[in-house]
Design goal:
Elements lengths: L16 E12 L2 E12 L3 E5 L6 H9 L6 E6 L2 E2 L11 E3 L11 H5 L1 H5 L4 H14 L15 H13 L5 E5 L7 H18 L2 E6 L2 H7 L2 E6 L2 E6 L1 H6 L4 H6 L4 E9 L2 E4 L2 E4 L12 E6 L4 E2 L10 E11 L3 E7 L8 E6 H6 L7 E6 L5 E4 L4
Parallel strand pairs: 3-8, 3-9, 6-7, 7-8
Antiparallel strand pairs: 1-2, 1-4, 4-5, 9-10, 11-12, 11-14, 12-13, 14-20, 15-19, 16-17, 16-19, 17-18
Length: 374
């Protein structure tokens, strides 16, 4: 047993991937919840399943846990086929949104529940429980009951219980959604630190994009039962592969325009240049251009700076350390843009409603996608 507070390493993996998911489909009568999901989960990573309600992320997690049966497809964990195994024969710990603690058991007994079922010796259980409670920051709470703890503390206990048996996989199903905003912020950092310290492969289900961006090594963005994109938080945010990802993850401006060829686009009275178009849009193709609120240039705009225009600030949304300015320009009738500025820029450039500014759109940050057919 290690004395650092970290859980001992589990069995040595026999595969490069902790999970290999192939062709998973799930039908509920006439409704298809998952459509041919293929996904590899790397050893020791925190992978986040992100998407709106009803996208299939929780269904996929439950299939991995054996709590739902797939209609088709297979799952291998560390090279072992677990597709048809019952939950108790799969190697994972799970934390639910509702904590699911036993109210009539002490915190120590809750944490030791799985260890008792495995018939570990009493002294070993006691040492393990003490180690885990120290690990989650509750070293003196073993004799208390769940009702005596806050929601965040109860979630820490649920996490300790899930880790008690040294599982090869940790499943987190919306673990922070029942907590208030400050507790969520605090606990997500603690969960990430703990996951990295223990090194357990973790799947986190959430609909909270900020939670996913701050905690995950990689994010799987799901929509209507399919995977839209898999990538690092930075790749997902800066290089969205589909209009859905661009719109769902983070704030975004959307401008309707027409392709002119050679990565140039006509939007109202402006001709905009894009440096990193993923698709080759033929001349005359209707497109939507996506750019983030921070994807603008305020300083050092020269006469030859592309994508520049005169903006009228219509409204300011003050956010403390930054602000969001809603702007319009004469060349974009009926289209409004929202841009983010720091508090220092707010004062240095006298950014306020009614003020006019010269701005430019970052050509390397504009993402162009074909407009959906009407």
């Amino acid at each position: 047993m290690e004395t650092s507070g970290a859980c001992p390493a589990g069995p040595q993996p026999v595969s490069a991937f902790a999970l290999e998911i192939r062709g998973i489909r799930k039908n509920f009568d006439a409704f298809t919840a998952l459509r041919n999901i293929d996904l590899d989960v790397r050893q020791g990573e925190m992978l986040c399943l992100l998407g709106p309600s009803g996208c299939g992320k929780t269904t996929l997690l439950r299939i991995i846990a054996g709590l739902e049966t797939q209609t088709a497809g297979s799952i291998r964990q560390n090279g072992r086929d677990i597709s048809d195994l019952p939950p108790y024969r799969r190697d994972y710990g799970i934390v639910f949104q509702s904590y699911a603690l036993f109210p009539n058991l002490t915190i120590a007994d809750n944490v030791s529940y799985g260890l008792v079922n495995r018939r570990m010796k009493r002294d070993e259980i006691k040492r393990r429980v003490a180690e885990l409670l120290k690990l989650v920051g509750l070293p003196t709470s073993g004799g208390k009951y769940p009702s005596q703890l806050s929601g965040g503390q109860q979630q820490r206990v649920a996490l300790a219980r899930a880790l008690a048996t040294n599982p090869g996989l940790l499943l987190l199903d919306e673990p922070l959604s029942a907590l208030d905003a400050l507790e969520r912020l605090r606990l997500r950092g603690e969960i990430r630190r703990l996951q990295q310290q223990v090194g357990v492969t973790t799947l986190l289900v959430t609909h909270d994009q900020e939670e996913a961006l701050s905690m995950a090594d990689r994010i799987v963005v799901m929509n209507h039962g399919v995977i839209e994109q898999v990538g690092t938080p930075q790749e997902i945010y800066e290089q969205p592969a589909t209009p859905f990802v661009a719109d769902f993850v983070g704030k975004v401006n959307v401008l309707s325009g027409t392709a002119l060829g050679n990565q140039r686009f006509r939007v109202g009275g402006l001709e905009l240049h894009c440096e990193n178009c993923v698709q080759d849009h033929g001349v005359g193709t209707a497109v939507n251009l996506y750019l983030r609120p921070e994807d603008r240039i305020l300083e050092s705009i020269a006469a030859d700076t592309p994508n520049q225009f005169d903006a009228l600030i219509n409204r300011i949304e003050y956010l403390g350390g930054s602000c969001i300015a809603e702007v319009s320009c004469d060349e974009l009738p009926g289209q409004h843009l929202s841009f983010q500025f720091s508090l220092n820029q707010l004062h240095d450039y006298d950014i306020r409603a009614g003020r006019r500014l010269k701005l430019a759109l970052r050509a390397n940050r504009i993402r162009a996608f074909a407009a959906p057919a009407v």
